[in-house]
Amino acid sequence: MRPKLTILDESMVEHIIGEAVELLRDPGVRVYNEEALALLAEGGAEIDPAKQVAHIPEAVVRKALDTAPSEFRLYDLDGQPAVHYGADSVQFDPGSAALAILDSSTQEQRVPVTADFVKFVKLVEMLPQIDAQSTALVCGDVPAEIGDLYRLYLALNYMRKPVITGAFRKDTWWTMREMLAAMAGGSEALVRKPIAVFDVCPSPPLLWSDLTCQNLIDCARNGIPAELVSMPLAGATAPVTLAAAVVQHAAESLSGILIGQLAMPGSPVVWGGSPAAFDMREGTTPMGDVGTWLIDCAYVQVGKALKLPTHAYLGMSDAKIVDAQCGMESAGGTLLAALAGVNMVSGAGMMDFESCQSFEKLVLDAEMIGMAKRLISGVEARETPIALNLMRRLGHHADFLSDPHTCKWFGMELYFPSQIIDRGSLDAWKRKGAKSAFQRASERVEQLVARYQPPPVSSELCAELRTIATSTARKFGMQHLPPITEGLLEGDVEQTLTGTKRALEDGVEPLAVIERGLVPAMRVVGEKFSCGEYFLPNLIMAAGSMKQAMQMLEPELRSRQQTVKSPGKVVIGTVHGDIHEIGKSLVATMLAANGFEVHDLGVDVPVERFLGAVRETGATLVGLSSLLTTTMVVQKRVIEALAGAGLRAQVKVMVGGAPVTRQWTQDIGADGYAENAADAVDLALRLAAS
Length: 690
What we know:
By secondary structure, the protein is α/β, with parallel strands linked by helices. Helices cover 49% and strands 13% of the residues.
């Protein structure tokens, strides 16, 4: 027997549907799309043109419900059925359109960029508990006008699972459809085996914007499933009583089903939403609130009574970091969604009122999803009799562990989470480093992403996708999309050079490859080193990859008479009396990789040589390295000599090395101190800008 959650009794469900139908007649639904109004008029609604309101009779609504499919499937990119919308099938995807990513190293929110989205897609692919991809992040390194199509473009390059997405504009919808058709093998193939669902959102109360109406109509006429996302806010944009909010949700959703079915009878549509119970104390829209859960589960029950596929935003948290509140709220919503039989549950990884995504929360949520799926599989009598023969045979001996019965059934009966869930002893936990769940989640993120294998997408198809996306990007001032330079993050020279070459072949300007691809990737490498995710070998390999990519790009830059905008010129060296080179050379390489013009003087450099190099190059930064305590004083002499030669005002001086401290930096009058190469780059950028 499958455990199920029921929020409403049958009579209340019928009452809610009846009131929703009455709302569509009076006061009706406001529609700011002329094509939709014309469809409604032809379908039998009474239109008030001045107010753009459609008054819809019950018979018209019931006819639309008769043609709306009760189920459909999404397919993966191998053409296999992967998601079933219908009955009590339960699947999960990450939520969509977060404007922030929780930085793994700082636990602060920041604007996501291309590298974040690519990593997110890879992670979702590697989590078997997550059934579908979603365009989960809005990248901040492209114009806002192409934010919708760009995230889909990135997802299509890396995914095999189907995707939940949505358009922000009427025109970009067509670009997104073109990319999906290319990926599916043509428009007809996309209709036969859809690989995506588009979210379309009515506005509360009882209103359809021009954009969402058009998206809904275009989906219906092109055979692409549409997922209605009604968002009543109980107490603010909807009545405060939960049942009344469900009535409003039903009315808005019924109007969406009607518009879609009038545009194309039989077009697949999902009864979905993202409502909330308004927080009267904070003035926020809590997604982890019990009131929100109740509205969601109740409207899903209404959708099932209408024999429609269902969707809900559940399993989210309003917490700002991955903490106990985050786990509590996410677990509660996930369990209720599974018990309610929601066909597609959006929200894994989401926090802070649907605005932020977290890699760590996503892998933790995946474990909760695995447990929820096991929960709804229920308890079965695997054998008959259930236990009688087994226990009589073993008697009073606790030998079940070695019995064939255990070996036969334990894999089906028990759920085994990954090592992210700690179920060892206290001593075992301590031996493994006494790590928190967040730390274990961070490690698992990196492990899974490292094991990701790219899908077998041909270079020709990748180029076609890029051409389609770029054609729209150019309309909004972006001539070339940011190049995808993941090889650099992994220190893979061959992959970095292949990606650089492909970007050039795709028409990306060499400056754009550097400024939007290589340099941001190197900054990510530096951040990973600073927070302990990367180590010196990773840093050195990434810097080497960057150097070779720059060598490939230099002829292209010369042929176009272009130069890389440098943040400054740096003279760097190990001071006189010291011949240690590794640290200094690594700093020099990292500075060059981040665009600085670097003049490396080598080791055992006399004071006079530093002065001469500053005069010759016009440097604005000087880097002084010292590994020996006995040579630290030479750093001071260089600074004094710069002042004596009248050059001190021209340059900022950075110092570093094992024995160097912040106090020493202040004592000798240097401008800054860095403990490692990554910190040195950050320091140099700050000093160059000051």
